[in-house]
């Protein structure tokens, strides 16, 4: 423990003065005799004053919490549905975290199919921005997936036991990404087209058209053309997705809060 050292002279002088003040306060008038003068080498050790430990500052996360059952207040809202008249898919299989056996992974977004999401979904159905932001990716020079790629990706996934980031990116097909700030990015995938004027750096508003529904990047584009027309839409939070790792009921609640219907 750290101690402050003071000379005995200073200590006794201080004590004498305090005693004199106490006598005066009690009505005493007699002079207080001065104590003997200590030698310069004599010292007293005084304990330091008690100090309250200062807690270490807590640094808040730079991005919102994607797993909180209550939508993080740093996530802007309400979002607009990415297809006109849309709603949350009826099946949990079309929500985030649903298994995707063909690539040994899980789903990371919402799938809007005809008959399951309250909207008309077909080839070319307009896909619109869910919130205002800046386009940070627009695959204007996209090339369709090939039969050889489908075969190679399937073999690679089987060998690795999972789909690596490049494989996932290929499976998402033609895409547009919009950055909304604060670590929040939305992705619009499997597009059949990208709306003229949509390019990297362009500012878009909620409800502004970005492209059209398609099935680009899906294995079915090769194996069963025309059977996978849908929009895959992701809400990215940092390096993961909204609702990652939580139960379907919580996922539904989070996205209903996001779209302003809960």
Question: Which labels suit this protein?
Answer:
7-stranded antiparallel β-sheet, 3-stranded antiparallel β-sheet, 20% strand, alpha+beta, single chain, disordered N terminus, Glucose Permease (Domain IIA), 2 domains, 262 residues
Given the structure, what is the number of helices? 5
**Class by alpha and beta content:** alpha+beta
Can you name the CATH architecture of the largest domain?
Distorted Sandwich
- As a percent range, the share of helical residues equals 10-25%
Order of helices and strands: EHEEEEEEHHEEEEEHEEH
Low-confidence stretches: 1-33, 38-53
Q: End-to-end span in angstroms?
A: 57 Å
Largest sheet: 7 strands, antiparallel
What CATH calls the topology of the largest domain is: Glucose Permease (Domain IIA)
Annotated CATH homologous superfamily of the largest domain: Glucose Permease (Domain IIA)
Number of structural units classed as domains: 2
CATH classification, class level of the largest domain: Mainly Beta
Report the mean per-residue pLDDT as an integer: 82
**Per DSSP, what share of the residues sits in E-state strands of 2 or more residues?**
15-25%
**Could you tell me the number of beta strands?**
14
Q: What coarse outline follows from CA principal-axis ratios?
A: globular
**Radius of gyration from CA coordinates:** 34 Å
């Amino acid at each position: 423990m750290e101690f402050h050292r003071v000379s005995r002279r200073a200590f006794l002088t201080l004590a004498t003065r305090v005693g004199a003040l106490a006598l005066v306060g009690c009505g005493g008038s007699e002079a207080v005799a001065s104590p003997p003068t200590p030698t310069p080498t004599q010292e007293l050790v005084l304990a330091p004053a008690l100090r309250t430990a200062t807690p270490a500052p807590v640094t808040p996360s730079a991005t919102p919490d994607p797993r909180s059952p209550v939508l993080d207040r740093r996530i802007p809202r309400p979002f607009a549905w990415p297809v006109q008249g849309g709603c949350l898919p009826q099946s949990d299989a079309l929500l985030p975290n649903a298994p995707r056996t063909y690539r040994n992974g899980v789903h990371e977004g919402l799938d809007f199919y005809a008959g399951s999401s309250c909207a008309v979904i077909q080839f070319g159905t307009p896909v619109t921005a869910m919130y205002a932001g800046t386009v940070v990716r627009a695959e204007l020079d996209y090339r369709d997936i090939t039969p050889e790629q489908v075969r190679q990706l399937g073999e690679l996934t089987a060998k690795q036991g999972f789909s690596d980031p490049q494989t996932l990116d290929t499976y998402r097909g033609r895409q547009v990404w919009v950055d909304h700030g604060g670590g929040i990015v939305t992705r619009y995938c499997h597009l059949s087209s990208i709306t003229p004027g949509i390019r990297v750096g362009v500012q878009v508003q909620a409800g502004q058209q970005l492209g059209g529904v398609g099935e680009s990047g899906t294995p079915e584009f090769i194996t069963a053309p025309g059977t996978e027309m849908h929009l895959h839409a992701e809400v990215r939070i940092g390096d993961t997705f909204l609702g990652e790792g939580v139960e379907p009921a919580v996922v539904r609640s989070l996205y209903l809060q996001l779209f302003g219907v809960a």
